[in-house]
Amino acid sequence: QGQLVESGGGLVQAGDSLRLSCVASGFTFNNYAMGWFRQAPGKEREFVVGISRSGTFSHYDDSERGRFTISRDNYKNTVYLQMDTLKPDDTAVYYCAAVDAPSYFWIPRVLGEYDIWGQGTHVTVSS
């Protein structure tokens, strides 16, 4: 049974940075594409960024491109989300997700394509 545990969220001010971590267990991490999603209060969960199983490829939502950076360490079974120049609109619960990837470059962006989810970590950005 695969498990994902996120950490690193918190309360920060606009312009600050945060680094989220997601530790995986119970599955072969380097066979899985990983994604970060977020859900703001009253809104649907949305794709933020994804990374291929090798870490070679990534795909960002346009609103986060240039501010957020995804990376993974397949030796530590961990995926990271570095978030810089945070804005109040970034306030949300951030979720890590995983899916068994059929190819080395595949990065799904649809919520329903991921089958392992973490419990989420809260990020609050004050103005």
Low-confidence regions? none
Please report the number of helical segments.
Answer: 0
Largest sheet: 7 strands, mixed
Radius of gyration: 14 Å
Q: What is the tally of beta strands?
A: 11
What portion of the residues fall into strands of 2 or more residues? over 45%
Structural class: mainly beta
Encode the helix/strand succession as letters.
Answer: EEEEEEEEEEE
What helical percentage do the residues reach? under 10%
C-alpha geometry? globular
Q: How far apart are the termini? A: 40 Å
Integer average pLDDT = 95
Your description of this structure?
By secondary structure, the chain is mainly beta. A hairpin with a 6-residue loop joins strand 5 (46-51) and strand 6. The protein has strands spanning 3-7, 10-13, 18-25, 32-39, 46-51, 58-60, 68-73, 78-83, 92-100, 116-117, 121-126. It has no helices and eleven strands. The radius of gyration is 14 Å and the shape is globular.
What's the quick description here?
The protein is mainly beta. The chain is globular and about 40 Å long.
Ordered list of secondary-structure elements with their pairings:
Blueprint: E1 3-7, E2 10-13, E3 18-25, E4 32-39, E5 46-51, E6 58-60, E7 68-73, E8 78-83, E9 92-100, E10 116-117, E11 121-126
Q: Which descriptors apply to this entry?
A:
single chain, 127 residues, mainly beta, four-stranded antiparallel sheet
